[in-house]
Amino acid sequence: MRKPRAQMIAETRAKLIAAARTAFGTIGYAETSMDDLTASAGLTRGALYHHFGDKKGLLVAVIAQIDGEMNAHMRAVTAKASDPWTGFRDECTAYIELALDPEIQRIMLRDGPAVLGDPWDWPTLSECIRSMTESLTKLAESGVIAPIDPEAGARLIAGATQYAAQWIANAPEPEATSRKAIEAFNLMLDGLLVRS
């Protein structure tokens, strides 16, 4: 029995994304040959062009998939927290810690910006800012943190986490850099707390 067209399309896209993710994560975007990539997926270059336009479009899809996984991980971290402030703080720390993952380093923090430009222009960042703005609004309304413009706070915090992640991804000693970054970041973040 023949598969429905929608299922075939989804399977083809999934094969291309999986092959690209493996290649981009191991040898990098620049070194990935489209012929080798499509052959490893058992598909043609035509399938890549049809579904993603080009290699850059495929990178966008890979980044969207990894970003979704990163967000799910951070939501799980937040859900385990004993209170909203700890959840917010742990979520930010979890993002910085993800910069130790070699695949995230190469795809999200090195090749992504080199190929797609400034991450502040990526669609995925706007969702991060929206979510963080919402969290800061609730924390300020409940008196946990000092009154702050929530969007300004979200953008500054997101900038700090993004820069820390970039620093870790490009550091000669990522583990040591991560520890230093997280310690400094958490001290900075704790400055928002209302002191009783």
Describe this structure as you would to a colleague:
- With 196 residues, the chain is mostly helical.
- The chain contains nine helices and no strands.
- The longest helix is centred in the middle third of the chain and has 26 residues, at 55-80.
How would you sum up this structure in a few lines?
The protein is an all-alpha fold and 196 residues long. It has helices at 5-26, 34-40, 45-52, 55-80, 84-97, 102-116, 123-141, 150-169, 174-190.
Structural class estimated from helices and strands: mainly alpha
CATH class identity of the largest domain: Mainly Alpha
Uncertain regions: pLDDT < 50 for 5+ in a row? none
Fraction in helix: over 70%
Please report the total strand number as a whole number: 0
DNA-binding region: 33-52
Keywords: DNA-binding
Protein name: TetR/AcrR family transcriptional regulator
Pfam families: TetR_C_41, TetR_N
Pick out its properties.
Tetracycline Repressor, domain 2, Arc Repressor Mutant, subunit A, 9 helices, 2 domains, about 200 residues, mainly alpha
What is this structure's SSE topology?
Blueprint: H1 5-26, H2 34-40, H3 45-52, H4 55-80, H5 84-97, H6 102-116, H7 123-141, H8 150-169, H9 174-190
Helix pairs in contact: 1-3, 1-4, 1-6, 3-4, 4-5, 4-6, 5-8, 5-9, 6-8, 7-8, 8-9
